[in-house]
Specification:
This protein is of the alpha+beta class. It has four helices and five strands; from the N terminus they run E-H-E-E-H-E-E-H-H. The protein has a single domain, classed as Alpha-Beta Plaits. A hairpin with a 2-residue loop joins strand 2 and strand 3. It binds flavin mononucleotide.
Length: 137
């Protein structure tokens, strides 16, 4: 059996990374996750990355082990690293979401808040609050 797993972290963008390099990372990650079936979100704002990865345990942990070693970010702070009781992002839409606007983020938050109570979706919704206070992503 390969249960669903969720990892969520915040990290600092490497100071040498250009906007174009962040865009390239976004395209790579969405393409790669859409081909392997990993769901979740990735956003970057004010020098931070925020990512949620949801998929089977083996998949998510092995991807995260690669991401953790990536020199394009540092000071990774894990907020969630646990089996998912139920799928959160798997049902949001059929792709991995690169979040590029407050509007997109607002939609995700509305979706999370409408989910029947689940500690992961509730925690994710709270974690998104500070990002919603930004004027733009
Ligand atoms: C903040 C951040 C998020 C990333 N997210 C993903 C991701 O969701 N999926 C992915 O395949 N690679 C992601 N990467 C890139 C991986 O770290 C790695 O470069 C990529 O998977 C290629 O690894 P490989 O050369 O070992 O195949 C991310 C990198 C960073 C810095």
């Amino acid at each position: 059996m390969n249960p669903l797993y969720t990892i969520c972290y915040i990290s600092k963008v490497h100071s040498d990374l250009s906007d174009q390099q962040i865009e390239d990372l976004f395209s790579y990650s969405s393409q790669s996750n859409n081909s392997t079936g990993i769901k979740g979100i990735l956003l970057s704002t004010m020098g931070n990355f925020f990512q949620v990865l949801e998929g089977t345990k083996d998949q998510v942990i092995s991807l995260y082990n690669v991401i953790k070693e990536d020199a394009r970010h540092h000071d990774i702070y894990e907020v969630i690293h646990r089996p998912a009781v139920k799928a959160v992002f798997t049902n949001y839409n059929s792709k991995f979401n690169i979040v590029k606007s407050i509007d997109d983020l607002d939609k995700i938050k509305t979706y999370l808040d409408a989910m029947p109570f689940d500690s992961t979706s509730e925690k994710l919704s709270r974690l998104l609050n500070p990002f919603l206070l930004m004027e733009e992503l």
